[in-house]
Write a structure and sequence with these properties.
Chain lengths: 306, 259
């Protein structure tokens, strides 16, 4: 069964602003699905429609087989959502926010209290449960929204840029927790601007640009399509003369740092041999951007050209 | 109770609990000001000025204004509660917590409506208790008092909810109470008898729902009235149904809530 099925979904905002152009999308149960795209591409509109915060213009959406038009309540009972912006009453206590959310789903208070304890502890907020939300740090507020989204134990968890503005340590903790949830069977849909995050977490991804899905595939096969990688070489010693490398596109970033493009059919050994031959030794190397990011930038640029 | 009804009941209970917690937590903004204002009304209009005014329909002026002031408090507080609470939830975006959940739109409506009505009725009770320091009351028809108090509270609570749904900024929440409700209330027979008005104002006033609410409430408390209580009850019931259907429609369509 598909956790999510979207058919010909279209959204036109006032003043004829077309946000989604009849998109089609399917997310399998148990998937960790990434939705990537530049700002204004239509990611949040899509998520807004799934959570019924945005009215669609046309098309069909179903969640675990429940049609949003005919079985809205049943569909929504399967979903937990972590929005991009903070959307809780900042003057309510942490515990109240989470327990009230459970109440809106019809979960009795005693069960809600037990679950709140589990999720607030898991997300490191239990000690802050009696504090007003306004007093939490930015990272804690994000975690609060995740705890709130989990309180109805959703089969489909939707996260709209959950790690925006979150420090690295917390980001890694969240990645670990999300992976754990996914392994336990929760289907996750994630939008993010951190492509490293998508590459690390997602099994499948869709790239949306200007209201259209321009790519929808699994992460591994997508990355395999990357023909050229750009790598940065840190040289052992500064070079006085620009090296002669006719088979490569490269530029010197400074005396001892070189940026070079390697095509898929070119071997690194050959490059290092040529460099050694010219008396240049490499101290370390790294990718200029992560692989998915490189591919993402190229696909978006191609779409713009078309 | 089947599982759907049970979930609906829990969701409704959650909104109600939240609303009651909200207006009792900020009691100094919600319960205390009307108590002080009405005490001043009783002292100034009831005692100081009222002592110079002759009896109306056989009751003292103080007794005459008590039902009107109690009803005025019920209406304004029921309205203020839903309009400010709902708009506040929209403003902080916390309304999305309810919109994304599996509870149907009518539960949101009923929860806010009862929350506002409860605050209105609580303030009305406080006003009546304060009035006992100034005069004695002998309720004539408990059933009419209760029916009209509850129905008026529900009507104004729904009115506040509609205001909250349409409001885009804080000014919009105070516009209707200032420019529509206050004039209707002051011209709604709180301080005078309809019979004191010249024509055509006497006939036109009968179309003012506030006058019908105040007058019928006064009939229940004191046994005196200027208009037919059947007409008033029918008018309030019809108004309630119109607002209820309108409000439900707005919530279902997501007017002011969904883009």
């Amino acid at each position: 069964m598909h956790a999510l099925s979207v058919k010909n979904l279209r959204k036109v905002y006032p003043h004829n602003l077309v946000a989604l152009k009849d998109i089609n999308l399917e997310v399998r149960e148990g998937d960790f699905f990434g939705m990537l795209g530049p700002n204004g591409a239509g990611k949040s509109t899509t998520i807004g429609i799934l959570c019924s915060l945005v009215n669609k213009t046309s098309g069909k959406v179903s969640v675990f087989g429940y049609d949003l038009d005919t079985d809205l309540e049943a569909a929504k009972s399967c979903i937990g959502v972590v929005p991009q912006e903070f959307n809780f009453n900042p003057f309510e206590k942490v515990i109240q926010i989470v327990v009230n959310q459970a109440g809106y789903y019809g979960i009795p208070r005693n069960v809600a209290m037990q679950r709140a304890e589990i999720y607030l502890k898991k997300l490191g907020l239990w000690e802050k449960r009696n504090q007003m939300a306004i007093r939490l740090s930015g990272g804690m507020k994000r975690r609060l929204m995740i705890a709130r989204a989990l309180i109805n134990e959703p089969k489909l968890l939707i996260l709209d840029e959950p790690t925006a503005g979150v420090d690295i340590e917390l980001r890694y903790d969240l990645w670990k927790y999300l992976t754990e949830l996914n392994e336990q069977g929760t289907t996750i849909i994630l939008t993010t601007h951190y492509l490293e995050e998508a590459e690390h977490l997602c099994k499948n991804i869709a790239i949306i640009d200007r209201g259209e899905i321009i790519e929808n595939s699994n992460v591994k096969s997508l990355i395999a399509r990357l023909n050229i990688q750009t790598i940065i070489l840190d040289l052992t010693e500064p070079v006085l003369k620009i090296p002669y490398l006719p088979n490569y596109r490269f530029r010197m970033l400074d005396d001892s740092t070189m940026e070079i493009e390697i095509a898929r059919d070119q071997s690194l050994n050959a490059l290092f041999t040529e460099l050694s031959f010219q008396g240049i030794n490499v101290n370390s190397m790294r990718n200029k951007t992560n692989r998915l990011e490189e591919l993402f930038v190229r696909l978006i640029a191609e779409n713009k050209k078309n | 109770m089947n599982s759907t009804s049970f979930r609906t009941y829990i969701a409704l209970q959650t909104i109600l609990r939240k609303e009651i917690a909200r207006f009792t937590r900020i009691w100094s903004q919600t319960l205390l000001p009307p108590a002080i204002t009405m005490t001043l009304y009783f002292i100034i209009f009831g005692k100081l000025i009222g002592s110079q005014i002759r009896d109306i329909h056989g009751v003292t002026y103080m007794q005459y204004i008590v039902p009107g002031l109690a009803m005025m408090s019920i209406m304004t507080n029921a309205y203020a509660n839903t309009s400010s609470s709902f708009f506040g939830a929209k403003f902080s975006k916390s309304i999305e917590e309810m919109l994304v959940s599996s509870m149907p739109s009518y539960v949101i409506l009923v929860g806010y409506m009862f929350g506002g009505a409860l605050r209105g009725l609580l303030v009305g009770l406080i006003v009546i208790l304060i009035s006992l320091f100034f005069t004695h009351l002998h309720i004539q028809y408990w059933s009419i008092v209760l029916v009209m108090a509850v129905m008026s509270a529900l009507v104004f609570s729904l009115g506040g909810l509609i205001n909250g749904i349409f409001a885009k900024k804080f000014d919009d929440v105070s516009f209707i109470p200032t420019f529509v409700l206050t004039p209707l209330t002051y011209l709604g027979g709180v301080f005078y008898s309809l019979k004191q008005l010249p024509e055509p104002w006497q006939t036109l006033s009968i179309l003012n729902p506030v006058l019908n609410m105040v007058d019928t409430f006064r009939f229940g408390m004191l046994g005196i009235s200027d208009v037919s209580i059947y007409f008033s009850l029918a008018m309030v019931a019809i108004l309630f149904l119109i607002l209820l259907i309108w409000c439900l429609n707005l919530l279902k369509k997501g007017v002011g809530l969904r883009t």
